[in-house]
Amino acid sequence: MQRYSLRINGQACAPQGGAWFASQNPYTGETWAEIPRGDARDVDAAVQAAHAALTTGPWAELTATQRGALLRTLGDLIARDAAKLAATEVRDNGKLFAEMSAQLNYLPQWFYYYGGLADKVQGSTLPLDKKGYFAFTRNEPVGVVAAITPWNSPLLLLAWKIAPALAAGCTVVVKPSEFTSASTLELAELFEEAGFPPGVFNVVTGFGQEVGTPLVEHPLVSKISFTGSDATGRLINEQAARLLKHTAMELGGKSPNIVFADADLDQAVFGAISGIFAATGQTCIAGSRLLVQDSIHDAFVEKLLAVARSARMGDPMHPDTQVGPITTEPQYRKVLDYIAIARSEGATAVLGGAKGEAPGCGKGWFVQPTIFTGVRNDMRIAQEEVFGPVLSVIRFQDEADALRIANGVRFGLAAAVWTGDIARALRMSERLQAGTVWINTYRAVSFMAPFGGYKDSGLGRENGSDAIREYLQTKTVWINSGAVTGNPFVLR
Ligand code: NAD
User: Fold this and answer.
1) Which CATH number fits domain 2-251+457-476: 3.40.605.10, 3.40.50.11720, 3.40.640.10, 3.30.565.10?
2) Closest ligand 1 atom to the C-alpha of 413?
3) What band does 361 get if pLDDT is binned at 50, 70 and 90?
4) Looking at the annotation, which residues are catalytic?
5) Atom number of ligand 1 nearest to Cα 462
């Protein structure tokens, strides 16, 4: 059994309450690690350390070029330890080693990209309407950032926040998900090795109300960057609004994967599978609504079933496994509940529809890859985020019908269109209400490509060069270069 420590001010430390909680391996159902149960005292220590590093420590003295160099060194260390960090994530969240090692091998790119960007953010000299003044802008770090992350891709989603935040000169306190804290604590050890001054990167593990709430409400935290469910995001945004803090919210989705009759149907089948069964459907960008044009509906579902039926469930560490367990026991029960709801609403399970009990599944929390046909867009299974391997197939007639159904949910994170007609692809990409639209592909992301939600899927954007601005604030400096002070009671 491995016992982890908090990371505060560059030190491994025990939680002040002296308590730890168990982290389970979703494949075996067994406890494999003990995670520190932080509380408001640990949050305060971490935020004080982050604030000191921001304002007085050596971090505050570094040039942007030096910060960039540290980020690139960190990227090298992550590349060195990618296999180890990926194995920790598999043990903690049950996703495939193939998926997590691909994520970890890709992760250094965020630190190289934002490391390179750190010293390329420029202010401006302002053209003014007033004579006798010179004015310019400076971009300054927004302050201490609280990064709150979910369990599905812990380090990838954390990198999307901390790489631009550190490049901007902010300092960070992370609260990872209580279900998957281990990899973030292991990552924290690399910061000192890379040469980051103490207090720049801190981790307090624990539960939402015990760690998350005091972190959001701490007066020295300036920005909350959150990824998770829309219910928690809404609550945090309300608390932050009361305290006038900056926020960025990456929330849930119910993304449409839209297949027109003129598409390459074999490619579209792979797109549909990758949209819902990759990562066992536990991804915010899951293509959980498959919209299929009426004229090809039955043939397409047959093709899809032929591939989906052979998806192999089993040990996520095994290279042949394609569908791993559900990460947490409550989530496992939630997915099975949604399957029951879909049946009660009149949808037909043409594949799966039960817990997974194949020989390779051990005692893990497996749900069979499940496909429902006969789904209407007003059913709960079509409107609510399941976050599991459950696909709803919905028929449509034409482009207008596809758009009405696709946009007819409160979420707007992503959407995909499968078509051979470039004009249709462009029309659809304009009209789909989603932060990302894929044409003839699915689940492509990059450190260079802005990512975020329309509607209830979030506020703000991660990735891409603009993301660094989410962690900066603008200061305008006015210099009197000859203006004469007139009436002091009148605006200059
Ligand atoms: P969650 O909202 O339950 O938890 C997310 C984080 O918030 C966890 O660290 C949790 O401990 C913390 N938290 C819970 N209550 C809190 C509170 N009152 N104050 C502060 N923090 C609190 O989400 P989850 O179940 O871990 O993750 C799954 C969700 O995340 C899904 O809805 C998924 O769509 C979403 N997600 C979104 C993106 C994206 O980029 N848009 C990416 C991945 C996951």
Assistant:
1) 3.40.605.10
2) 41
3) confident
4) 250, 284
5) 40
Ligand 1 atom with least separation from CA of 216: 20
Matching residue, tokens 């090692």:
101
105: helix, coil or strand?
helix
Cα 489 to ligand 1 centre (Å): 51
Q: What is the model's pLDDT at position 363?
A: 84
Q: Is 469 helix (H, G, I), strand (E, B) or coil?
A: helix
Backbone angles phi, psi at 141, to 5 degrees: -60, 145
For 78-105, write each residue's pLDDT tens digit.
Answer: 999 999 999 999 999 999 999 999 999 9
Which residue CA neighbors atom 40 of ligand 1 most closely? 250
Q: Is the pLDDT of residue 492 over 90?
A: no
What value does the mean pLDDT take over residues 135-139? 98
CATH number of the domain at 256-439, please? 3.40.309.10
* Cβ proximity of 248 and 469 under 8 Å: no
Rounded to 5°, the CA angle 356-358-363 comes to: 70
Distance of CA 453 from the midpoint of ligand 1 (Å): 15
The residue ranges of every structural domain in the chain are 2-251+457-476, 256-439
Contact between 415 and 438 (Cβ < 8 Å): yes
Segment 431-444 shows an average pLDDT of 98
